[in-house]
Amino acid sequence: MEGFWENIHVETAARYSVVILCSILFLAIFELITSYKNWKEINKGNIAVAMATGGKLLGISIIFRYSIEHNDTLLQSVGWGVFGFFLLLLGYVLFEFLTPTIKVDQEIGKGNKAVGFISMVISIGLSFVIGASIG
C-alpha cells in the first residue's frame, strides 16, 4: 500500500480531486461576500458576473498550479493554495476599497461588463503574483 500513494496517477487524481473541492469551497466563499448570487446571475446571462467569476476561478486554478509545482506533498500544496486564495480574496476586497467612485460589487451585479472585465483581469493578474511567491 505504501507504493500506492507514490504512483503518479494516484497522486495526480488526488491533487485534482482536492483542487476541485477547494475550488467549489472558495467559489462558495466568494458567493458569500458578493452582493449578487453568481450562478443565478450567470444563468440570467449576466456577462459581467460570468467574467468576474471566471477570473476568480482561473485565479484559484493558477494559484494551485504553482502550489502543486513548488510543493512535494498534497498537504503542503493545499496549505499554500488556501493561503493564496485568502490573498486573492484580499485583493478583491482591496479592489472595492481602492475604487471609491465605483461600487465594484454593485456594478458587476448590474451587468457592467467593463467592471466585470477589470475584476477578471485583476484576479488573474494577482494569481500570477501570488503563485510566483508561493514557496
Description:
By secondary structure, the chain is an all-alpha fold. The protein has one domain. It contains six helices and no strands. It has helices at residues 8-33, 38-43, 47-70, 74-98, 104-109, 113-133. Helix 1 packs antiparallel against helix 3 (47-70) and helix 1 runs parallel beside helix 4 (74-98). The longest helix is centred in the N-terminal third of the chain and has 26 residues, at 8-33. 33% of the residues are buried.
How many angstroms separate the termini? Answer: 29 Å
Number of strands: 0
Structural class: mainly alpha
* Order of helix and strand elements from N to C terminus: HHHHHH
Let me know the largest β-sheet.
none
Mean of residue pLDDT values: 92
Q: Tell me the count of domains.
A: 1
Radius of gyration: 16 Å
- Tally of alpha and pi helices: 6
Our estimate of the beta-strand percent is under 5%
Poorly predicted regions are none
DSSP helix fraction: over 70%
* Dominant shape: elongated
